[in-house]
Amino acid sequence: MKAIILDxxxxxxxxxxxxxxxxxxQTFPNLELEEIRKPWDNANMGEVSSLEMWAAIGFQGDLEKxxxxxxxxIELNDGFLEFIKAxxxxxxxxxxxxxxxRWSKYLREKFNINQYFDxxxxxxxxxxxxxxxxxxxxxxxxxxxxxxxxLYVDDRRGYLGAAxxxxxNTILFNSRNVPYxxxxxxxxxxxxxxxxxxxxxxxxx
Length: 205
Prior knowledge:
Order of helices and strands: EHHHHHEHEHHEHEEH
Mean pLDDT: 95
Helix content: 40-55%
Strand order of the largest sheet: 3-2-1-4-5-6
Largest sheet: 6 strands, parallel
Radius of gyration: 17 Å
Shape: globular
Number of strands: 6
């Protein structure tokens, strides 16, 4: 194992993103799911900025403050900093995240975590979004490793499946408490323990 690749929402940070629609509906209770998700998806693909997304949803006024108020509800996951500092001594590290460029940049700078990662692949920057296999292949290429030398950690089962198709080893970070037949951890302590137990024969488990 040469590289560990982490998802952002539901792994590096506690929030999975599932709170965004209810957060918006506090202000606009009559908005349908699709009326919120479509602008959000457009921002995550880099087709519009996140500020344009807020405007498309219906917000007016100081959009930067509105955005900051939401992003400041997001917290780092327990144990992340301890894990990443130790992992960086043994492995190359990367992020793959479906996110707008502005949101990702703000959160990474707020938590001062850019320093820990060799590669950062954000859908809003690349205009490629998971589960598109290209975002995994691009990250592998930038890390200068083989797919089978990577461990990909995500809280969404479908994205693990996409990573597995390109040859990565995968673990579910079970923030959502969902059933999963593959390898599962519930926190960063369990992930650290699991890494210590991985043998060469287990790769592509």
